Amino acid sequence: MRTRYLLCYDVRDDRRLRRTIAVAEAWGERIQYSVFVCDLTDVERARLEGALRDVLDVAVDRALLIDLGPSQGGSADRFHWISRPERLYDPSQPFVV
After folding, report:
1. Where do the domains of the chain lie, and which CATH numbers do they carry?
2. What are the DSSP calls for 34-95, one per residue?
3. Residue of 10, 24, 37, 61 with fewest CB within 10 Å of its CB?
4. pTM beyond cutoff 0.85
């Protein structure tokens, strides 16, 4: 069974930030600059946590994984936006953080 998680992070170093973004993009869908929605099994959650621990400096960086309950197989499109969501970046263009 999959569970929906909200992943948020604050990373102080540019190199670690780029690596954290790559990990987050591999496991979830971006809904804000440092906020992702991830539908994960227990094994996938453990792997995501391990991948984040490998790139973060836990003494100064922060990452939070919030359990939102069972996933129903949909994407982040099931969220009900109050304001108009904007595309944060164009994936076909270079992205500099």
Report:
1. 3-58 (3.30.70.240)
2. TEEEEEE-HHHHHHHHHHHHHHS-TTT-EEEEEEEEE--S--GGGS--SS-------TTS--
3. 10
4. no
